[in-house]
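Need a sequence for this fold. Nothing fancy.
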């Protein structure tokens, strides 16, 4: 288990600063003012934690059974969505995974930049892009002021100990009128409310903050961003989030399907029995299509497992 620090005795909310946090559950604190949830237990050393638990040391792989290829496709889909707002000359991807997303922009002639906390992922991405990826937190990179046309923050802000610092830094390095693309899990979606602690999106202790659309919109506006578009559909996260949440609620070991598709060296917990694995896989096969349809329905109602904002920097 990673070393953790506790926020149980925290004072005022670190995002809005308005009121003391109150207990939402045994694992989460809630701000009554802005509605953001904060995890009680948090990684003590984020860089060491993500280097060890998210990517393999040798080749920065995450998944087995050829599932790295669908991830590449999802990054291309992400790129295509953003091209409606383009073109872009200089693009920064914060927490840049393995660089497939940035490679799409690079192939279109953009100058690309990235940050990464995982040493192995930073090494692999630097080699893939032919340029150095910054290893560390975004504020420490000290990118030039007003130098970026687009900054991407996909499934990163929930991991960050000081989101306000990140947003201030993004406002500094984005040119006036530049775009910020941001995606986070939706902590107030219907499945999170119905299934409670079984919801996959909590991902404790990896996620420190848990946002909803209203709370994130308010935070962004306080830091000089205007939300231009909002989306709740994600082919990458929606159906699988719901499927894994249902399996959790049915009594399988927590996130068993997710751990099954991970590379073995990234999951050091106890292994489920063969009978449990087979039963889980049969149920997952039967529930896959219904979960996909349910995800599409919930997304159309603004209740997607994740949500995305495309924002303009007011400068």
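Here you go.
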């Amino acid at each position: 288990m990673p070393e953790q620090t506790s926020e149980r005795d925290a004072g005022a909310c670190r995002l809005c600063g308005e009121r003391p946090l109150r207990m939402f559950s045994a694992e989460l604190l809630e701000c009554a003012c802005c509605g953001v949830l904060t995890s009680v237990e948090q990684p003590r050393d984020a860089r060491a934690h993500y280097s060890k638990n998210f990517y393999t040391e040798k080749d920065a792989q995450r998944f087995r059974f050829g599932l790295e290829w669908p991830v590449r496709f999802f990054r291309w889909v992400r790129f295509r969505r953003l091209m409606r707002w383009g073109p872009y000359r200089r693009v920064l991807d914060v927490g840049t995974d393995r660089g497939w997303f940035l490679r799409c922009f690079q192939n279109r002639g953009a100058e690309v930049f990235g940050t990464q906390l995982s040493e192995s992922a930073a090494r692999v991405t630097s080699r893939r892009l032919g340029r150095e990826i910054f290893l560390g937190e975004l504020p420490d990179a000290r990118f030039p002021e007003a130098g970026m046309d687009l900054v991407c923050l996909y499934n990163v802000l929930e991991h960050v100990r000081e989101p306000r610092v990140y947003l201030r830094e993004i406002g500094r390095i984005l040119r006036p009128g530049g775009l910020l693309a941001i995606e986070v899990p939706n902590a107030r979606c219907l499945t999170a409310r119905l299934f409670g602690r079984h919801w996959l999106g909590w991902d404790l202790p990896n996620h420190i903050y848990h946002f909803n659309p209203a709370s994130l919109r308010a935070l962004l506006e306080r830091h000089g961003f205007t939300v231009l578009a909002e989306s709740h559909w994600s082919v990458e996260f929606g159906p699988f989030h719901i499927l894994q949440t249902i399996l959790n609620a049915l009594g399988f070991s927590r996130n068993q399907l997710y751990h099954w598709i991970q590379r073995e060296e990234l999951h050091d917990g106890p292994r489920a029995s063969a009978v449990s694995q087979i039963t889980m896989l049969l149920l997952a096969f039967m529930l896959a299509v219904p979960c996909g349809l349910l995800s599409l329905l919930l997304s159309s109602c603004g209740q997607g497992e994740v949500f995305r904002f495309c924002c303009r920097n007011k400068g």
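For context: The chain has eleven helices and 13 strands.
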